[in-house]
Design goal:
By secondary structure, the chain is of the alpha/beta class. It has 2 domains: about 260 residues, Vaccinia Virus protein VP39 (Rossmann fold, 3-Layer(aba) Sandwich), CATH 3.40.50; about 45 residues. It is built from 10 helices and 13 strands. Strand 2, helix 4 and strand 3 form a beta-alpha-beta unit. It binds S-adenosylmethionine.
């Protein structure tokens, strides 16, 4: 039996018996004007962050949500789309689709602006999406991809290595996104590679505890799927795996991140990964031009990707300051 069968069993149960301990981190309630979240839907928040960001919203865009859960994020996305079929939500677990439909019916009762037809719930799998190539502009998944088995670090995308489920899921998202489309994701990460005995525990993996990879590995896998720009928007504590309870040498503090990957070609000199760094010029001139397309206005921090940050730091100029990652980035950067 594949671990993917265990995953479906876990979510079949979570669809019929809401589990408050599953996946989520404590989060402030959602406040959007005129949006009322049904309590049963809020109880089924099985995400580990948010994948709904104002920065990604465009008029008329086609939206895909993979792993619908109780429908909370699909409803939030529908709030921005507000049209029949504006959000396509995919899930392979029939009980989860039924629960989401029921919660969305209740949402329609509580929200005048919402009609259940705004969310088109489809049976389907992240590993083989039931959508045409380049058919959506925004895709999202919350706390699902960490469950998928990943290829060892450094191996993703190598033609000689068989693609892992995580590679495949990201490749599918890349396939269905139009050029310039955005993939918004939230997943846990681990500070060091997950020990084998936890990685192989199918229940812990299904519950988003032990399948996650390191941040570098996660980002590298996204880039290997063909996304040329990646923004790390948020990074925060997610779960403590206590040494004695999990059979570890030392405690392991997992974090969760929110990331947006953009379907643009990976530049020849490497991807643009934004982690919240800035560069500040404080020399005698009004501006500083690095000759590579970046013009810094004196004394003003400019958001830069890690690649540009490293290149500017390498110049070794005393009038250039490069700040470290804040793990909080919301656009406006150098690439
Ligand atoms: C951790 S829950 C997250 C639910 C939702 N995204 C949220 O934030 O509340 C994982 C979801 O993915 C669904 N799922 C499990 N295996 C999947 C697969 N192979 N493809 C797509 N969805 C899957 C589960 O049924 C469940 O709804």
């Amino acid at each position: 039996m594949s671990y993917l069968t265990t995953v479906k069993q876990v979510y079949r149960k979570a669809a019929t018996e809401p589990d408050k301990t599953l996946c989520c981190v404590p989060q402030a309630p959602v406040y959007l004007p005129g949006l009322v979240i049904p309590p049963a839907m809020a109880e089924m928040n099985y995400g580990c962050g948010s994948t709904v960001h104002l920065a990604d919203m465009r008029a008329g865009q086609r939206i895909l949500y993979v792993g619908v859960g109780g429908g909370l994020e699909a409803l939030k996305l529908a709030y921005f789309a507000q049209r029949p079929g504006g959000v396509i939500a995919v899930d392979p677990v029939p009980e989860m689709r039924t629960a989401a439909r029921k919660n969305l019916q209740e949402a329609a009762r509580l929200n005048d602006w919402f009609d259940p037809s705004f969310v088109d719930i489809r049976a389907g799998d992240a590993l083989k999406l039931p959508l045409d190539d380049e058919s959506v502009d925004l895709a999202a998944q919350n706390c699902l991809f960490n469950i998928f088995m990943a290829t060892a670090p450094g191996k993703s995308g190598d033609g000689a290595i068989q693609a892992s489920d995580l590679d495949r899921a990201l490749q599918e998202m890349h396939r269905v996104l139009a050029d310039g489309g955005r993939l918004s994701m939230s997943d846990p990460i681990t500070p060091r590679p997950m020990p084998g005995h936890l990685k192989d525990d199918e229940i812990l993996r299904a519950k988003c505890i032990s399948g996650c990879v390191t941040l570098d590995h996660y980002l590298q896998t996204i880039v290997s799927a063909g996304f040329g720009t990646v923004e790390v928007r948020t990074r925060k504590p997610y779960r403590m795996l206590q040494r004695t309870r999990y059979g570890l040498d030392e405690d392991l503090l997992l974090e969760s991140i929110e990331v947006c990957a953009v379907k643009v070609p990976v530049p020849d000199d490497g991807p643009c990964i934004f982690t919240g760094r800035t560069a500040i010029y404080s020399g005698p001139d009004e501006t500083f031009d690095d000759g590579r397309g970046h013009i810094l206005v004196r004394d003003l921090p400019a958001s830069v990707c890690d690649k540009t940050a490293a290149a500017l730091a390498d110049l070794g100029r005393p009038d250039l300051t490069v700040t470290g990652p804040t793990w909080h980035y919301s656009g406006g950067g150098c690439c």
